[in-house]
UniProtKB/TrEMBL annotation:
This is Glycosyltransferase RgtA/B/C/D-like domain-containing protein. It is a multi-pass membrane protein. Its main location: membrane. It comes from the Bacteria. It comes from Hymenobacter guriensis. InterPro entries: LipidA_mod_glycosyltrf_83 (IPR050297). The chain crosses the membrane at residues 20-41, 91-112, 141-162, 174-201, 213-235, 276-299, 305-325, 337-357, 363-384. Keywords: Cell membrane, Glycosyltransferase, Membrane, Transferase, Transmembrane, Transmembrane helix. The keyword Flavoprotein does not apply. The keyword Transmembrane helix applies. It is found in: Cell membrane.
Length: 407
């Protein structure tokens, strides 16, 4: 990928590079601490919202009776288990939120270490980590009793574990982190799916015809289980009803779509997956319009009730990150399995939103931002060879290097 001209006024002098190389770790640590203190001050301590109450009730049931629900809340089981540990210890809401902040700090450190390993550039790794800490949406949810804080941190830790994967211990660590993250939210299954897709994309060309046949048979054998799980996940979500209302953003009447012709509805006796497939196949134009508008609402940052400052910040910060992330996804100098994992996470999360509905806030975008920022950092490193101090790092092999001591 050819390098583009680099504005001279943004160049970093040798003295500045030495100073940043020496003190950037302390600066990032101080930045993390300052942001968390500001969040606690802003919200007046732990923040509870509507969804928080059911998580806390579920956590209390686990802490006191070791009781696990079997319906909708089962999809969030990982988070109530986490909350129950703090309730059991007596730390309450403060323990939950402070724990989330500490995990977010560890995840930010892991993010930095992964990017440094991939790019070999401290300034790129530190800059992306500073953006992760400073962008309000990525840290704000640390103060809330919601799943998104731990879910976002889990994605960051999976990215780090994949970057440093080596040997059985590295693979085991990656799988444990992926499973723990997957249990936090209904869409957590995207993490193992993205990992499986990235691994398959990398390994498939190296397999013999016989090995490929074994893989195909294994996938076919697992499909009935996946079908059952997907039906279970969709059982309590009223997707068809949201389609009939034409909603783009959940419970927001300002953006809706009205069908131009009568909709064909699925039979009531079909399972959730078949109902969804029936609606899409029989109303393709209407569904495509809904899906594209949901994707726009997800990525654009232009929701009508956002403040002008929020909208301008999204355009100025996120849009360039999207462009750099696109370049980073195509940068062959970095391991294909890592790039594929990050792209798959973004694509799968966007697909889930397009099939379901966009949230009125940023809760569905926030878990994708670590993947976007990571790819943007790779794009930046590929875009600026020689401009950030020293020659560009040599292309990394497709098989990832040995892990350094970490965590």
């Amino acid at each position: 990928m050819p390098a583009l001209p680099f504005p001279g006024f943004l160049r970093v002098s040798a003295g500045q590079r030495r100073w940043l190389a020496r003190y950037h770790g302390w600066l990032l640590g101080a930045l993390w601490l300052l942001v968390q203190l500001l969040l606690l001050w802003k919200h007046g301590g732990p923040r509870s919202v509507t969804d928080s109450r059911r998580y806390l009730l579920y956590a209390q049931q686990i802490a006191e009776q070791w009781y696990f629900e079997h319906d909708h809340n089962l999809r969030y089981v990982g988070y109530p288990v986490y909350c129950s540990l703090w309730l059991k210890s007596g730390a309450g809401l403060w323990g939950i939120v402070l724990g989330q902040m500490v995990v977010a700090g560890l995840a930010a450190w892991a993010f930095y270490r992964a990017l440094l390993q991939l790019t070999g550039r401290r300034l790129v790794a530190a800059g992306a980590t500073a953006l992760l800490l400073l962008w309000p949406d990525t840290q704000n949810l640390n103060a809330y009793i919601l799943t998104e804080s731990l879910f976002t941190s889990g994605i960051l830790l999976c990215f780090w574990a994949l970057t440093f994967v080596s040997g059985r211990w590295g693979i085991t660590r990656l799988l444990v982190l992926a499973l723990a993250t997957a249990l936090l939210r209904p869409n957590g299954f995207l993490i193992p799916m993205a990992l499986a897709g990235a691994a398959g994309w990398q390994l498939w060309p190296r397999l013999t015809p016989r090995q490929r046949g074994v893989v195909v048979v294994a996938v076919a054998a697992v499909m009935p289980l996946l079908w059952m799980v997907l039906n279970k996940l969709l059982l309590t979500f009223t997707l068809i009803e949201t389609y009939l209302r034409g909603e783009i953003i959940y419970l927001y009447p300002g953006w809706t779509v009205q069908p131009r012709q009568p909709l064909q509805l699925p039979p009531a006796d079909l399972g959730p997956v078949l109902r969804l497939a029936y609606f899409i196949l029989h109303n393709p134009a209407y569904f495509a319009q809904l899906a594209l508008l949901k994707a726009f609402a997800l990525f654009s940052g232009l929701k009508p009730y956002y403040s002008r400052v929020h909208i301008v910040a999204a355009v100025v910060v996120l849009y360039p990150c999207y462009w750099l992330a696109w370049r980073g996804s195509r940068a062959a100098a970095f391991p294909g399995i890592v790039r594929c994992f990050l792209v798959a996470l973004i694509g799968l999360q966007a697909l889930v939103v397009m099939l379901t509905i966009e949230d009125w806030d940023v809760r569905f975008l926030v878990p994708m931002l670590p993947a976007i920022f990571a790819l943007a950092a790779l794009g930046m490193a590929a875009w600026l060879p020689g401009c950030l101090g020293g020659p560009p790092r040599a292309a990394l092999p497709e098989t990832l290097p040995e892990a350094r001591p970490a965590l």
